[in-house]
Fold PilZ domain-containing protein.
Amino acid sequence: MSTYIPPEVQAGLDAARKKDRRRRNKIRVEADGQSFRVIRFQEDGFTLDVEDAPHLRGLVDLYDGGRHFLQCLIVASEEESGEMRYEFKRATPATDHAPVDFELDEFVPAGLIPQS
């Protein structure tokens, strides 16, 4: 049995595989006012399509759909098979509130009753 695949068919299969990964993944990276679709996301970095993404470096924001979930400091690592890999130097979870510099009580009243 032969496993030879003509180059045209292999290119078509690779393009379909890349399109499917991009469609399924909703994570995107925003840098300098531009947004790029993430192909693969891992614990230590992510990959972008080399054709779409510039050579990113520095502070970027990662979004899962519309939810901002990470603010990262990245550096471009390597290019492999049409994908550019970026590694995290720092990845900080994004929050929707400012950090506090005091201890919060476990019991927080819903409201105060005014004195008459």
